[in-house]
Design brief:
- This is Iron-sulphur binding protein LdpA C-terminal domain-containing protein.
- The protein folds into 2 domains: 111 residues, no CATH class; 44 residues, no CATH class.
- It is built from 5 helices and 4 strands.
- The chain has a 4-stranded parallel sheet with strand order 1-2-3-4.
- Strand 3, helix 3 and strand 4 form a beta-alpha-beta unit.
Length: 162
């Protein structure tokens, strides 16, 4: 997989993608993944935060002149992202399609949770540190490790079909 992080550049987004893709094409030996940074490095938790990212994905999914590759949502992703994608008909879990340029099933290739995931796991770490003081290691406290794991699985489980 060859990932390319991409902010929403408005009208220049598709031309920029095509220019990048033309540069990558001679050496591209795998699938391409366009990481859509709807609200870069936000870690926001509200429903509104993910709307920008989903709107960006919809815009690119509709674009007939975008280069091939899977789309991965990032920046503004949170616990509301999957529901938002489902409502727009963009969240697919049942098929893997090799040629993403002609299939709506392959449009969303993943969700990067980044800052949001750090926030939810961070709550467990802060709880553990306040209980045990300072520099406690989560590996030494199985109950906190399990709590962090449950939080992480609740977040990525729907994407991974767990």
């Amino acid at each position: 997989m060859s990932p390319v992080s991409l902010p929403n550049g408005g009208d220049s987004t598709i031309p920029s993608m095509n220019e990048m893709f033309s540069i990558m094409t001679p050496n591209l030996q795998c699938f391409n993944l366009w990481q859509l940074d709807g609200r870069p490095m936000s870690g926001d938790i509200g429903r509104g935060a993910t709307k920008e990212t989903i709107a960006f994905a919809i815009e690119l999914a509709k674009a007939k002149n975008r280069p091939p590759g899977f789309l991965q949502l990032a920046g503004g992703t949170n616990a509301h992202t999957i529901d938002g994608l489902r409502k727009k008909g963009l969240f697919q879990t049942t098929s893997i399609v090799v040629d993403s340029s002609n299939s709506p099933d392959a449009l969303i290739g993943g969700i990067a949770y980044g800052g949001y995931a750090r926030k939810i796991v961070g709550r467990v770490l802060r709880s553990m540190q306040s209980e045990y003081g300072g520099a406690a290691r989560i590996e030494d406290h199985p109950q906190h490790l399990l709590m962090a794991l449950k939080e992480a699985l609740a977040l990525v489980g729907p994407v991974k079909c767990l």
